[in-house]
Every structure is written in C-alpha cells, then in structure tokens.
C-alpha cells in the first residue's frame, strides 16, 4: 500500500472511530457532522472526501455487521445436516461463539447498532431491521434443511428462526450494553444447549 493510500485509509478509519464515539455519547439523531470532524481533528471539507453524510457512516457500520454475521452463517451452510447430535452441537456452538466474538471485538460499534437499532427510529432502525430480516432468512433456510434431513422436529423453521434471532439479539443487548460483561465461552455453551432443546432434536437411529 502506498503512503497516500495508507494515509487515506487511516483518515477514513479516524472519521469512523470519531463517529462511533460521538454516536455513543450523543446518539445518532443528535450527532452533527461538525461534531464528528471536531472529534477527529479534521477540517469539515475533509469529511466529505470520504463520506457523504452521517447517514453514510451509519450504513457502513450496519453493512460491516451484516457482512460479518452473514459470513458466519454462510460459512457452515449445511450445519443442520450434521451426522450426529454431538457434531451438530459443536458446529452450532462454533457459530454462536463466532457471532459473540464479532460483538466483543467491535464492542463500541455493536453498542451503537443495538441501542439505535432497537430503541430509536429513523435510518439506523431501518438498516438494523433489514440486517435482522436477512439474518432470520439465512437461519430459517438452515433450520428447514435440518428438518428435511429429519435432524430437527421443530414444525415451523421460519418461526424458530425468529425466536432464535430474538434470543440472540436481546441476550447480546443485556450482556453487552446493560451488564457490559460478555463471557463468550459461558454464553456460547448455554445458548447452544437452549437453542438445540428448542429445535427439538430428533432421536438418532
């Protein structure tokens, strides 16, 4: 990477980091572009070389999360076609652990996505809802595959996907935002067992 390209990447990241800090402090709706550039130590004109608006930054934050979570789910597309219950348990736990790790490694951005997406209106809520809907669709497809393979007994895969995403969403919000304590190993263990019980694992032949 050239010096110029490296400088541009650093400046862009500085703007994103400043925006995340201000969004956390003031909320998305009350944040102005001038607040972001002041926190980043840049001229306002520099901001517009990288982003069109604060809404542009919101889209990037949500897209980053969507890409991360989609990648986790899509990486193991046939998870519910596992040959044994133990294999399924281990693969599901790995998926949940990976999702928790994304949140923990991006805690400040994750807090904004959860607070603004769950509790506020406007663009962030719209972006967040699109993210959640896509995640439900991906998970529903995986559960339907497991049902067709006679691994799962849950009667309605789409409903089950909504329940699971709701569980994950509220659990992340509670442990990350309210408690600020994310023991991802313990949570992954408990969540895996709870989800598999709810999906009604069929007895193995």
TrEMBL record:
Start and end residues of each HTH tetR-type domain: 9-69
UniProt entry tagged with the keyword Methyltransferase: no
Classification via InterPro entries: Homeodomain-like_sf, HTH-type_Tx_Regulator, HTH_TetR, Tet_transcr_reg_TetR-rel_C_sf
The keyword DNA-binding is annotated on this UniProt entry: yes
DNA-binding segment(s): 32-51
Keywords: DNA-binding
Superkingdom: Bacteria
GO molecular function term, any single one: DNA binding
PANTHER family per UniProt: ACREF/ENVCD OPERON REPRESSOR-RELATED, ACREF_ENVCD OPERON REPRESSOR-RELATED
Protein name: TetR family transcriptional regulator
Organism: Desulfobotulus alkaliphilus
